[in-house]
Design a protein that fits this description.
The protein has helices at about 1-25, 70-85; strands at about 55-60, 65-70. With about 130 residues, it is mainly α. InterPro entries: Cas12f1-like_TNB.
C-alpha cells in the first residue's frame, strides 16, 4: 500500500517538474481528462464501452475505425488537448492558418505573423 502512495507522489512530482521546465522554456503544457480514453473512438467520438485487457484492438461499431487500443487512447488524448487548446476558435482555423494540431501539411506552411524568438541556449553557469 505504501508503494502505491509513493508512486502517486512521484508522478505528481514529475508533473510539477514538467510544468516548471515547460514554463522555463516557454512551452505550452495542458492537462486533459484521462478518463475513458480507451472507451472512446478517436475518429467519431462514439463511446464503445468497457473492454477487457485481452482486447488489444479498437474497433468502432459506429464508424468502422480500427487501430491498436493504445494508439486509439493516445489519439483521444491528443484530440482532447486540441479541443481544450482551441479556446473558442474552430480547430480547423486559427490566426496563422494552421489546422491547430501543430502538424505541417506538405502542400503549404503557414506564415507566422509574430517575430521569431532566437535563443542561443548559452548556459548561465558556463565559465566565460
Amino acid at each position: 500500500m505504501l508503494s502505491k502512495h509513493c508512486l502517486d507522489a512521484a508522478f505528481g512530482q514529475f508533473v510539477s517538474i514538467l510544468k516548471w521546465v515547460a514554463w522555463k522554456r516557454d512551452v505550452f503544457v495542458a492537462e486533459v481528462d484521462k478518463n475513458f480514453t480507451s472507451q472512446t473512438c478517436p475518429n467519431c467520438g462514439f463511446h464503445t464501452g468497457k473492454k477487457t485487457l485481452d482486447v488489444r484492438e479498437h474497433n468502432c461499431p459506429e464508424c468502422g475505425y480500427t487501430t491498436h487500443r493504445d494508439v486509439a487512447a493516445a489519439q483521444v488524448i491528443r484530440n482532447r488537448g486540441i479541443e481544450n487548446n482551441a479556446l473558442g476558435h474552430s480547430v480547423s482555423e486559427n490566426a496563422c492558418g494552421d489546422d491547430g494540431t501543430g502538424a505541417v501539411t506538405p502542400s503549404y506552411q503557414s506564415v507566422k505573423q509574430e517575430l521569431l524568438n532566437v535563443n542561443l541556449r548559452i548556459s548561465r553557469y558556463s565559465a566565460a
